From TrEMBL:
Pfam families: Aminotran_1_2. This is Aspartate aminotransferase. It is an enzyme of class 2 (transferase). It comes from Candida verbasci. GO terms for biological process: aspartate biosynthetic process. Its cofactor is pyridoxal 5'-phosphate.
């Protein structure tokens, strides 16, 4: 059996973490990281939110704090308050929601996938937006889903392909699974309007598709937690949904705790299934998956988030922190756009300010992105997605000039 593992082949680096590794090796002092979506302050440094600092202090000084295991479901005060952030503190769904702490958004998506795969009687094909976050496809393929795409981004108009999106909802077999980005779509930064959401949700309901919301950026799009929860609350509160709704929630970005892996999965039973026995069954099955995969969830990040959510002063501070982050990003979008327009960079650049959240889908081609990296030390994903959070007053001029150079370079070579 000398070759019993000879089928193990080396894989290419992860598109996002591989980019980060290349960035770290680059010796140029003025290199710019517009790769992984992690907030940076105006000095290009990671930012510990003031709300988090206060919560950490409070937790350390709490004589009852300890390092015991959490329960398999996770930290109850975190789960209860995390559900309120999503659904609204006065939602009548709070008494019905089934919540389980997860390893951030990725863990929640994985848990959703395993649960659906084991129990869902519908169609095990999942529909992802085209394009979507690089990790979505492999999370679901790994669990054994068939993965399909629904049109989302119209490259010509740099806007939502609503007709394409609605047509794929209509033509997918009934009871398929649709993954929706709740807000601040990754990678395009393009969200449906309220009216478009209403149409999308209505079609999903007609076909009785199962919805998973990926909510990784609540508060990051508009700076307002309520506004950013629009599609989730619309779907749930109008009870237009005949299947349960699954929400995968991450606090990595909006609390700025990336490494602590704080997140949860919330399942809102449909009106058909809403009874105590169903809720208990789902809860115990989620517990079984967690117990066999990670035993029980990590405590620290969830205690910090719970501390913020339970203390009105810290909660207010957090809301201010969200505005600080989202408005700095909006300012950087405006600055980049106006600099490109001043430079008369070929093409239109209004999409940079029309888009929302952490990312801009710049429209730069993979060759342009490669040239930005090689000639200018500016790193972004080959799809042309730029993390606007990586821009600041010190580097935005350099970035605009470099984009101008590469766009003009490739426009000339086409002539
Ligand atoms: C991103 O898309 O850059 C982030 O969500 C980080 C990640 O885990 O990929």
């Amino acid at each position: 059996m000398a070759d019993s593992f000879s089928n193990v082949i080396e894989l290419p680096p992860d598109p996002l973490f591989g980019l980060k590794a290349r960035f770290n090796l680059d010796k140029r002092a003025d290199k710019v990281d517009l790769g992984i979506g992690a907030y940076r302050d105006n000095n290009g440094k990671p930012w510990i939110l003031p709300a988090v600092k206060l919560a950490e202090e409070k937790l350390i000084n709490d004589p009852n704090n300890n390092h015991e295991y959490l329960s398999i479901s996770g930290f109850e005060p975190f789960l209860n308050n995390a559900a309120k952030v999503l659904l609204g503190s006065d939602s009548n769904q709070l008494s019905k929601v089934i919540s389980q702490q997860s390893l951030s958004g990725t863990g929640a998506l994985h848990l959703a996938g395993v649960f659906i795969k084991q129990f869902y009687k519908g169609n095990h094909t999942i529909y992802l937006s085209k394009p979507t976050w690089a990790n979505h496809k492999q999370i679901f393929e790994y669990i054994g889903f068939k993965v399909e795409n629904y049109p989302y981004w119209n490259n010509e108009t740099k806007s939502l392909d609503l007709d394409g999106f609605l047509n794929s909802i209509k033509s997918a077999p009934n009871n398929s699974v649709f993954l929706l980005h709740a807000c601040a779509h990754n990678p395009t930064g393009l969200d449906p309007t309220k009216n478009q959401w209403d149409l999308i949700l209505k079609e999903l309901e007609k076909k009785q598709h199962l919805i998973i919301f990926d909510s990784a950026y609540q508060g990051f799009a508009s700076g307002d937690l309520e506004k950013d929860a629009y599609p989730i609350r619309k779907a749930i509160n109008e009870e237009i949904i005949s299947s349960p709704i699954i929400i995968c929630q991450s606090f990595a970005k909006n609390v700025g705790m990336y490494g602590e892996r704080v997140g949860a999965i919330h399942i809102i039973p449909s009106t058909k299934e809403n009874n105590e026995a169903f809720n208990k069954a789902v809860k115990t099955q989620l517990n079984r998956i967690i117990r066999s995969e990670i035993s029980n969830p990590p405590a620290y990040g969830s205690k910090i988030v719970a501390t913020i959510l339970q203390d009105s002063k810290l909660y207010d501070q957090w809301r201010k922190d969200l505005v600080t982050m989202s408005s700095r990003i909006i300012k950087m979008r405006k600055t980049l756009r106006s600099k490109l327009e001043e430079l008369k960079t070929p093409g239109t650049w209004n999409h940079i300010t029309d888009q929302t959240g952490m990312f801009s889908f710049t429209g730069l081609t993979p060759e342009m992105v490669a040239r930005l990296e090689k000639s200018h030390g500016i790193y972004l994903v080959s799809s042309g997605r730029a993390s606007v959070a990586g821009l600041n007053d010190n580097n935005v001029d350099k970035v605009a000039k470099a984009i101008d150079e590469v766009v003009k370079y490739y426009s000339k070579s086409k002539l």
